Each structure stands twice: as C-alpha cells, then as structure tokens.
Amino acid sequence: MRPSDRSFARRIDLTSLQLFVAVCELGSIGRAAEREFIAASAISKRLSELEATMDTQLLYRHTRGVDLTPAGESLLHHARAVLLSLEKMQGELSEYADGVRGHVRIHANISAIVQFLPDDLGAFVKAHPQVKIDLEEHLSAQVLRAVQEGMADVGICSSSVVTGSHGVQSRLYRHDELVLIVPRGHALAQHETLPFEATLAYDHVGLHASSSIAMAMSEAAAAVGRSVRLRIQVTGLDAMCRMIHNGLGVGIMPRRAFELMHRVGDLASVRLTDAWAARGTLLVARDFAALPVTTRLLVEHLQARADPAA
Fold this sequence. Notes:
Distance between the termini: 41 Å
Number of strands: 12
Largest sheet: 8 strands, mixed
Strand content: 15-25%
CATH architecture of the largest domain: 3-Layer(aba) Sandwich
CATH topology of the largest domain: D-Maltodextrin-Binding Protein, domain 2
Order of helices and strands: HHHHEEHEHHEHEHEEEHEHEHEEH
Shape: elongated
CATH superfamily of the largest domain: Periplasmic binding protein-like II
Structural class: alpha/beta
CATH class of the largest domain: Alpha Beta
Helix content: 40-55%
Number of domains: 3
C-alpha cells in the first residue's frame, strides 16, 4: 500500500460512513438525525468533512432533502460493502468466542443442493461439529457473481456459467446428467433415449428463465430454429415433478435429483442424447489458496466426496 493510500484509509471515519448511508437511505439529513439520535448539525458537519476527505461533492442539498451526486452513488456502494464486511467480521469473531471454530459461506445452485450437498455437508458437519456453514440457494449466474463480489467464500454452480468468467478459480466437483421427465403413459415414455429436439412438440414445465437448465434448453431449441413451448415455470424440482405428473407438460432435470424424488408422481425418465445434457458442476472461489483454513478443509472434503468420474 502506498503512503497516500494509508493516509486515505486513516482519514476515513466509519461513523461518518454510517451516517452518510443513513442520509442516503432516508433522503434527508433531518430524518437521518432522528433515526440515529444525533443532531442534524452534527451530521451535516460530518458530511462536509467526508466531502473534504474525498475532495468531491457527494450530495446535492435542497429544501426537500438531498440527492446523490455521481461520486455519492459510488461512495454509497462502497460504504455499504465496507459496513457489511464489518458486520460479518464481528459476527464471525463472536462465533469464535462462543466456541464455533470457523464459518463458511456457500452459495449453490438448486441441482447441487438437491443432489449432492445434503450428504456431503452432513458428513462434514459430523466430522467438524463446531464449524458453522451458511448455505444459500441461488441461480448459477448469481452464485458466480456472489463469489466474485466476496458475498460467498465458495460457490457451486454449473460449468456453463463459468466459461470465460474472470476473477474466479474453479475446480470440478461433480458430473450430472440432464434427463427428460414424462408421465409413464406419455408418448415419449416408451423411448430409452431421445434427442432434445423431439420434446419440442410438447408443452414444457420449466425452471426460472435464468437458470442454467432453462438457458441450455433455449439455446438448443434456437439451434434447430425452434423454441421451447413453456407452459409453466416453477422454482423447485419437486414442484416440476408434481406439475408433470398432473399433465401440464414434460420437463428437463438432473437424473440423480429425479431418482431422489422418484415417489413424487408416477413418472419416467428418458436419457437425452445431446452433448449438453452431460454437465459439470464446479466449485468456484476467488482464490482457493487464500481461503481460510476451515473453508479449504471443506473444499477438500467436497472434492474427496465427488464421484470417481469427477
């Protein structure tokens, strides 16, 4: 860090940042003063000092309140990130005081959560009961972004969203296979294998349009000059199975996930012959070597639990 950088860091006052965020959220120095139990004049003084430190105007002041300048918009983004990091730091350190040895934040897509993570994380927690794991479900693209922005230590997502991305490292975690799910009496149920194109004559029950599965389906249909006849979108694989069982369409989902919930309706699976149906699921991090010891331990555990094919 350059001397000028250290000087800037020393001149930034966290209380002033908190008050700046409060003013931005409420749009008024007066309302922020009421919420923060501090005199409006004291907030105004701190904001002026903050502007002097930044050497730029942060707020447009007018009779109705305040508006952000472009510089203020940028500072608000960074201030929120700094304050959130401090809150997380406080939370994680307090957990050490309570006897928790480590805290890992994971974001994962629904496929990994349904197919692999219950068993894999369950085994890890049994071996390391004092490690706290925060797991959140997100779309693969959102998982990747959370890792890039530091909101998650480790991400688990489809390999399709990682291709060409910057700022992350990846390791192969699992392979999975997408299959067609149909009611047992459906015309396609008699086939052992099918190309995805053969399903385009039928209504589909699909996941969120931004999910890796939905995007792969859309791209495959476009490649043959067709589109997916999407009748309904659902947020979970169990809901997809129920909709398919009740005749609302056919669907595409991971084979192992279907096998784990095979009792949800009288359904059959048909293997797809398309190359994109065989997928890789990746572990992603900004820098695996720089992860805390506990997080690296979990990454090693997940890789050790992976299928031999991975």
